[in-house]
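[job 0412] stage=complex_fold ligand=heme C status=START
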Amino acid sequence: MTYKAKVASLIAAMLLITGAIGTTASASPFKVDLELFKFNPSLIVYEKSSAEFTDPQTCGECHEDKYQEWNGSLHSMAFIDPVYQGELNKATKAVGHSISRQCEGCHSPAGVVTGEIKGPGVSGLSPVARAGVSCDMCHSISAVNHGKTPTKEPGNGSFVIKPGEDRPDGAVLIKHGPHPPAEGCGDGFHECRQTEFHAQADLCASCHQVFHYDKYFPIEATYHEWKHSLYAQNDIHCQDCHMVGTETFVKAADSLVKPERKDYRHYFNGANYLLYYLGAQAAEKADDKEQAGRLMHQYEMAVKRLQNAAELEIEPVYRNGALAEVRVRVKNVRAGHNLPTSLSNIRQMWLEVIAKDEKGKIILSTGAVKADGSLAEDTRLFNSDGMGPNMHFAVDPWIITAFSRHETIPPKGYRDVHYGVTAPKGSKKLTIEAKLRYRQADQQIAEALLGAVPKDIDLARDYGLSKVPTLPVVDMVALQREVAAAQ
Ligand code: HEC
Ligand code: HEC
Ligand code: HEC
Ligand code: HEC
Ligand code: HEC
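[job 0412] stage=complex_fold status=DONE, emitting structure tokens
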């Protein structure tokens, strides 16, 4: 080969390589098996037969206690939740129903696989579609596809749902649970089948991991956070904290010993006290005192859960003998995942810290809620900020493809915040008050979501809300300590 020919072939080879790199770079590493995932971007697989879904009230005729516990849980409200409906309405307008179907796959799986739900709105639907994450949504799950998803991780509804099967003499219902079936299990109404994952986090994982519909960024990663925690290593699963009462959850989190079989309840109680409260208002309006009572019970449990999740420590830091800083440590002592988790870009958990001298004069104040409901600019929040592909701040899950800031607290871990404080002349000691506070969302975001509800939800008529009230704040834990001005 001549020198010129050599250079030419080298250039050609380089072009080929660049070309090859070009194609690899543009191809996504996330492949969707469209043969398997027919409802993509929801990853539900539906094994259809003439066996139909059953509404929860019918299950409740024989399983009354389970029904009473579930009815009033967030799972029972997952579809009619006005905050969800507001965001779904926005999603459908922004990206269309074929994509927002992803949302419906977790908030009302039956409504998606039967094709009944055609967009935002709650009226005119069957009881099963309205019931959101109902009995059948968990007990008709016959298998999971966690390893076959585009990310090879659970999420976006990666389960197989099969209410029953056709037999020569007609359709039979088959319900899956964690125990070996007893004699006569199902009383002729359904057959019973044991599956290992009903007692494990894998059941919850399909829905408690939310990936961007196309870029697969994990916007909610509760299962992932749990899986890499001390709890997973000690066989303490979601059920062991969320399907029991408050005292049992505290015991499981502290001792890392599983609750007894008799302790399990279908509460699925979490942190969203606001929605239980709104639900109770709606039940009062509809004159259903019993339902309002169940919802207020869930409300109190959610507040108690939050008040058992974290602990605080206050330590003075001295420089050259004089007080220079206080260090506030926030410890996640009992959440089996990061604190806060899930919608970490929407939920707000923050520190309010006040330092006073002996006369009660305020030396430092940070983290106060202002009159318009917003937080002071210097507030130290423990949550995350989402951003879209253009690196700009974003709130909506169909836009978020990364976090620009992610500061939640890992299970059994902690975060420290340092506040510069110097004592005024002549003062011998300061009083430091620290509070860890929580609310579901920033005031403006809550107003935007509730302002976007579809036409068939009327906040005044259904919830007695003429305007969005100031969001209630829960104090998770508070601590006061006196520190000397000098060492
Ligand atoms: C993989 C399942 C899954 C998908 C897909 C999903 N969600 Fe959710 N969504 C959840 C879970 C689980 C929660 C509860 C998280 C929590 O409360 O911490 C939730 C909570 C919410 C909330 C908060 C409700 C409240 O009362 O505070 C809104 C709003 C919401 N989702 C809207 C959407 C929209 C819109 C989409 C589609 C763009 C969507 N979700 C897709 C599982 C999912
Ligand atoms: C979010 C998923 C989920 C939903 C919704 C759900 N369950 Fe369960 N169910 C579970 C899990 C997990 C267990 C295993 C924990 C336990 O032993 O209680 C279980 C256990 C059961 C058991 C066996 C309990 C025992 O120990 O004998 C019955 C019966 C049952 N559920 C019925 C129902 C009924 C009826 C509903 C609706 C009113 C319902 N479930 C809603 C997840 C769910
Ligand atoms: C006609 C009465 C009847 C109806 C209706 C009924 N069940 Fe059952 N089911 C039973 C009986 C009886 C058992 C066995 C005793 C027990 O666990 O409560 C059982 C057991 C179960 C179990 C436990 C399996 C295990 O692991 O031990 C699950 C899960 C279950 N049912 C779910 C459901 C769901 C979901 C519905 C509604 C789709 C439903 N059942 C409707 C009578 C019924
Ligand atoms: C079919 C999807 C699905 C499955 C399976 C599922 N969840 Fe959920 N879960 C949801 C959705 C959707 C919400 C949020 C509803 C809302 O806020 O509108 C939710 C809410 C919750 C909440 C309340 C969160 C809060 O902010 O208070 C808890 C706790 C919870 N789930 C626990 C579990 C556990 C434990 C399991 C497994 C046993 C499980 N879930 C299985 C979809 C699911
Ligand atoms: C050791 C106990 C424990 C375990 C295990 C656990 N959780 Fe939690 N969970 C909590 C506590 C405490 C809170 C309230 C503090 C918070 O919001 O994180 C909570 C809150 C939640 C919330 C509401 C978050 C919010 O701020 O809106 C969801 C959803 C949830 N858990 C789901 C799960 C799922 C799914 C699993 C399993 C993968 C799980 N949890 C395992 C203790 C636990």
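The chain has two domains: 45-228, 309-484.
[job 0412] exit 0
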